[in-house]
Amino acid sequence: MTNAPIYDAAKQRITSLVEGQDPQTPVAATPGWSVKDVVAHLAGGLRDFVDRRFDGVESGEWGERQVRDRKDNSLADAFAEWEANRELAEPLFDTPMGSVLISEVVAHEHDLRAALGVPGDRDGVAVRAALTKPLQQLDQRMRDNEVPALRITLEHGDRVLGHGDPAGTLRTTSFELMRAIGGRRSADQIKALDWDGDPDVWIAALALFGRHRPEPFSE
């Protein structure tokens, strides 16, 4: 399955999920944002991908700017912009950027599901596809920083990150790994997973965006 259908399916699920909901419902996975803000971020973020505008990604200002610039817009405005930007983004799905877009939309789908109390599919194609780019990034980061290799055992097989023989093993699910490396779990929550080896060896490397969530988050 290619990136565009996976993205569009997640976009449709989000549209159906949010329909009829209070747009001001807080989304605990993204502190300070509401349901409307998450959709505005997805819309604005997609346009930033089209424009190759990535200033503030590491600090978190990237997403905050998108939400701030659209604070006076309605949820309907956010969906209309997202639809327009989806057309502009069509060429991106056949590039390496496509897997980044999958990670973004699937992560926020589950942020919204947690906020609205409507859990979704956690072991299907979308979640596995959402791990493709993050695991590539983590593998490269561990190699660049000479972090000992780690075997990750998921429900569909093993993956070794880093160079050389693995010095430890993490056993978890694709969904939990996606949430852990995507900033939706605290360091203590990640350390409490099923490890062989000292998780402190890898805990910093597993923060895809440079930091783990300060407080525990369960969903």
TrEMBL record:
Residue ranges of domain Mycothiol-dependent maleylpyruvate isomerase metal-binding in the record: 13-87
UniProt KW Isomerase keyword: yes
Record keywords: Isomerase
Signal peptide annotation: none
GO MF assignments: isomerase activity
InterPro entries linked to this entry: DinB/YfiT-like, Maleyloyr_isom, MDMPI_metal-binding
Protein name: Maleylpyruvate isomerase family mycothiol-dependent enzyme
